[in-house]
Amino acid sequence: MAHNPVNHPARPIYRAIGGLIGLYLVAFGVLGFVQAGGGEFFAQDDSSVLGQGTNLGYSVISAGLGIVILLATLAGRNVDVLVDTWLGYGLMALGLAGLAVLRTDANYLNFTLATAIVTMVLGQVLLLCGMYGKVGSEEEAKAFQDARLVL
After folding, report:
1. How far is residue 96's CA from residue 70's CA, in Å, rounded to a whole number?
2. What CA dihedral angle connects 52, 34, 71 and 16, to 10 degrees?
3. Where are the domains of the chain?
4. Which end of the chain is more exposed for a tag (fewer CB within 10 A), N or C?
5. pLDDT in tens, the chain (151 residues)
6. Residue 76 dihedral angles phi and psi, to the nearest 5°
7. What does residue 53 show for φ and ψ, rounded to 5 degrees?
8. Which helix (H) or strand (E) holds 49?
9. What is the CB neighbour count within 10 angstroms for residue 112?
10. What's the CA gap between 43 and 54, in Å, rounded?
11. Is 52 helix (H, G, I), strand (E, B) or coil?
12. How far apart are CA 20 and CA 119, in angstroms?
């Protein structure tokens, strides 16, 4: 992470965007839980919420990830940078895995094409938030600027 800026001027905006992604995932998870409540955990049916396929399992996963992102955003102190980066990579991998099993019996999370696309876009935006949200001391920021000027 040596190339990621420290104390970027827009870091509060990126932190807020990360929090909004957490809120979206919690809302999607709760709505999916209400929609698929009482059904099978990994049902493969026509259940959809906000235009995306879901089931009880994916709703619980989404709500859990959203809560983790919200807690990390509230904690700050570069915890949000670490969580946003790793969960961004995780959401990208989940979206690709969902795309790979889209029309097979292994589609346990009931993904649709829209679900895979939204999951990958959320992962990309979380990675962006993780890259530009780093906070550090003035010495770290100056060292980053000096290293950047050398290149």
Report:
1. 24
2. 50
3. 11-150
4. C
5. 457 788 788 889 999 999 999 999 999 999 999 998 778 888 888 888 998 999 999 999 999 999 999 999 999 889 999 999 999 999 999 999 999 999 999 999 999 999 999 999 999 999 999 998 888 777 777 777 777 776 5
6. 65, -145
7. -70, 145
8. strand 48-49
9. 17
10. 9
11. strand
12. 14
What are the structure tokens assigned to 129, written together? 């938030």
The residue count for the chain: 151
- Which token pair is 56? 């009880």
Is the separation of the CB atoms in 131 and 15 below 8 Å?
no
Paired tokens of 61: 């996963």
d(CA 26, CA 5): 29
Q: What residues form DSSP beta bridges with 83?
A: none
The encoded tokens of residue 70 equal 């919200």
